[in-house]
Task: inverse folding
């Protein structure tokens, strides 16, 4: 008999007034699944419509009043598919916009390549022996390619410019749009009059370069938000609420209210904050607090949403449900930290509002001035177009992105994946590095420590016992099994496992469960686990090893003038030895997410710029609040989503490489900006003086872009000899 489930919270009225629910469906392998799912769901009583989007695996079901949404989920499970309610739509909209920008970029690139081929022939022919008829023919072919391509590829700029004009404001897209439209319009007129020059190539190349920058910027921002769109997935979507008669009903975690009783089975995530009413177990709170050790649970203990229950089932009375749990508090802290980081966007908006009217005014005054001095309308308009094109912010726009692309390519080769486009700028200015401990300074997988003279036979027996346990510590021991798992293993919740081996009971678990004493030769940071077989006992330690190059990386960071600290949610006894081994004088332990935010705020108030390196869900708000953040690839998905970069492998070397690469990139960015400003200082007066045609303006604009791009290529190599030497030495550290 299947368990009852309440999905009413995910049901909403559709446009036709019918109740409607959207489901994410797992297990779809081919297009044939569409018919199976849609026909199978439509066969249910009361179902009016079922539509499956194969690309997104989203199923939308409309049904009559009174029909059961739970039957839809049940039917999908019967068909072999797993389904769960899908509430978000923002990521789909972001993905569609990214695809649209990419299509525009592709159209502009295709058109630009073909038009440039034609333009090269015209340019060379104008100084040799090209006939007017041939030149006009090439110009008309260019027009046939450029006009529809610009109409499509220019939409992001044209639409943005129209929105700005409708609100009686100006943005960067207004002069871009005017320059493109005027260049194309005058090119058509010039072609119709059989003139020597046309500017289709200038307009399309301009669109291509600008679209490339816009797409890369959009993708960087979209990736940063994509993974963390649904925190509910981290704490589970459904919970087993106990009704008045004690029968469990599956309900969305959002529907839980204070006072509700929920049953948390072994291996499930807790759906709400609450207090244990009955049952014993051990709970893994690494997702919430970063604590490495599972915590024993008994009646009266507090549990948090997102924690992973161990082997025993427990009944919990909800104290905070809906959107008031600790997980939701973490998300709100994270959102607030991200909002604070948007000051870079606001600064860019202010710059663009200043730039646009200055460009327009300069072009307009140039045209008026030439008309006043007796020039014809055609000459005045072409000078204005030249001013608009030559002042196009391509060099300024590429000054930073070109360095970013080159530098991030270098970081990628070093095992570091960049999520945020402006990460390098911010990283170059940091003066403090804050590390989380667990999974960041230490390796994510714990290691087994054995006392001197450990009995190999007992260790092998312990591995066979551990193979039947789901306890995190047992998984480490299980790797040392010397045979198949023992039969009829019984698990005592919160204590350990037992079974008969060679006619004698064998136990694996806590020291008290096995009647063992802690040996003196195991590190104090170890979590202890014992095995007993008859009168023989063996106590083992489970500890997390430092990353192999942690000490030299920390030393190298200090040598670069950076202050290094540790902020950890782990207990002080586990953090202090790590800080001592690495030579880190300042560390704080037992920190919750809000504590890390507060500590970062204090550093910020003291004028510090902080690089945060962390891997757990509890680190996500701190990563978002820091000036810049890195996360190992083994970190939680939500943490990686809000980290500015993710590094791969067992080493910390990518952190040092990122710092060095960012400093080189920042220097090159400043050089590129200076080159772009110098270009405008020289080129704009020449355009205003009428010494530059739109074609020359386009070439000058492209030349300035090429110049800053070539300078940006220098970011592909280390900036100082000592940086290269440090990297080479660290690469020789055994992995």
Result:
């Amino acid at each position: 008999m299947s368990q009852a489930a309440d999905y009413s919270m995910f049901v909403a009225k559709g446009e036709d007034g019918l109740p409607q629910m959207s489901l994410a469906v797992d297990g779809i392998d081919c297009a044939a699944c569409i018919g199976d799912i849609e026909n199978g769901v439509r066969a249910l009583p009361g179902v009016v419509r079922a539509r499956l989007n194969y690309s997104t695996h989203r199923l939308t079901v409309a049904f009559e009043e009174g029909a059961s949404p739970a039957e839809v989920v049940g039917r999908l499970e019967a068909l072999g598919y797993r389904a769960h309610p899908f509430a978000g739509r923002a990521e789909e909209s972001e993905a569609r916009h990214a695809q649209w920008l990419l299509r525009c970029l592709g159209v502009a690139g295709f058109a630009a390549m073909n038009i440039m081929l034609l333009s090269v022939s015209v340019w060379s022919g104008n100084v040799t022996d090209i006939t007017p008829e041939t030149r006009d023919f090439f110009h008309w072919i260019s027009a046939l390619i450029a006009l529809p391509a610009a109409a499509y590829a220019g939409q992001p700029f044209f639409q943005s410019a129209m929105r700005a004009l409708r609100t009686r404001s100006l943005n960067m897209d207004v002069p871009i749009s005017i320059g493109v439209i005027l260049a194309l319009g005058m090119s058509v007129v010039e072609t119709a009059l059989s003139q020597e020059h046309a500017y289709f190539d200038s307009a399309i190349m301009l669109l291509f370069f600008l679209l490339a920058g816009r797409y890369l910027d959009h993708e960087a921002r979209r990736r940063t938000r994509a993974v963390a769109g649904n925190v509910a997935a981290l704490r589970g979507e459904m919970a087993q609420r106990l009704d008045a008669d004690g029968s469990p009903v599956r309900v969305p975690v959002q529907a839980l209210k204070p006072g509700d009783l929920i049953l948390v089975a072994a291996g499930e995530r807790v759906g709400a904050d609450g207090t244990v009413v009955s049952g014993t177990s051990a709970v893994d709170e690494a997702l919430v607090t970063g604590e490495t050790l599972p915590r024993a649970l008994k009646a009266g203990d507090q549990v948090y949403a997102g924690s992973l229950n161990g082997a025993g089932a427990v009944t919990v009375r909800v104290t905070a449900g809906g959107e008031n749990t600790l997980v939701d508090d973490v998300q709100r802290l994270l959102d607030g930290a991200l909002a604070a980081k948007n000051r870079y966007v606001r600064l860019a908006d202010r710059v663009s509002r200043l730039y646009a009217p200055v460009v327009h005014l300069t072009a307009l005054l140039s045209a008026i001035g030439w008309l006043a001095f007796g020039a014809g309308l055609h000459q005045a308009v072409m000078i204005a177009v030249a001013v608009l094109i030559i002042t196009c912010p391509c060099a300024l726009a590429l000054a930073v992105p070109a360095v970013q692309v080159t530098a991030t390519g270098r970081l990628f080769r070093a095992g570091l994946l960049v999520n945020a486009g402006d990460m390098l700028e911010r990283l170059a200015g940091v003066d403090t590095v804050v590390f989380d401990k667990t999974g960041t300074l230490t390796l994510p997988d714990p290691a087994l420590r054995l006392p001197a003279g450990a009995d190999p036979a007992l260790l092998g027996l312990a591995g066979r016992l551990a193979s039947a346990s789901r306890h995190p510590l047992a998984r480490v021991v299980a790797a040392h099994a010397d045979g198949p798992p023992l039969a009829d293993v019984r698990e005592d919740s919160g204590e350990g496992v037992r079974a008969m081996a060679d006619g004698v009971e064998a136990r694996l678990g806590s020291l008290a469960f096995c009647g063992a004493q802690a040996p003196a030769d195991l590190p104090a940071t170890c979590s202890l686990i014992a095995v007993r077989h008859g009168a023989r006992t063996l106590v083992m330690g489970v500890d997390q090893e430092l990353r192999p190059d942690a000490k030299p990386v920390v030393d190298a960071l200090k040598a670069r003038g950076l202050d290094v600290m540790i902020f950890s949610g782990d207990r002080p006894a586990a953090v202090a030895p790590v800080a001592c081994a690495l030579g880190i004088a300042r560390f704080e332990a037992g920190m919750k997410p809000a504590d890390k935010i507060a500590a970062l705020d204090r550093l910020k108030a003291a004028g510090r710029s902080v690089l945060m390196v962390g891997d757990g869900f509890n680190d996500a708000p701190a990563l978002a609040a820091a000036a810049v953040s890195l996360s190992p690839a083994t970190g939680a998905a939500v943490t990686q989503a809000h980290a500015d970069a993710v590094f791969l492998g067992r080493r910390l070397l990518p952190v040092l490489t990122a710092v060095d690469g960012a400093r080189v990139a920042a220097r090159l960015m400043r050089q590129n900006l200076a080159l772009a400003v110098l270009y405008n200082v020289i080129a704009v007066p020449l355009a205003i003086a009428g010494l530059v045609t739109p074609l020359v303006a386009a070439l000058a604009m492209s030349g300035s872009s090429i110049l800053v791009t070539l300078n940006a290529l220098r970011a592909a190599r280390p900036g100082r000899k000592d940086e290269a030497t440090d990297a080479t030495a660290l690469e020789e550290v055994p992995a």
Remarks:
- The CA atoms of residues 246 and 261 lie 9 Å apart.
- Confidence is low (pLDDT under 50) at residues 224-233, 336-349.
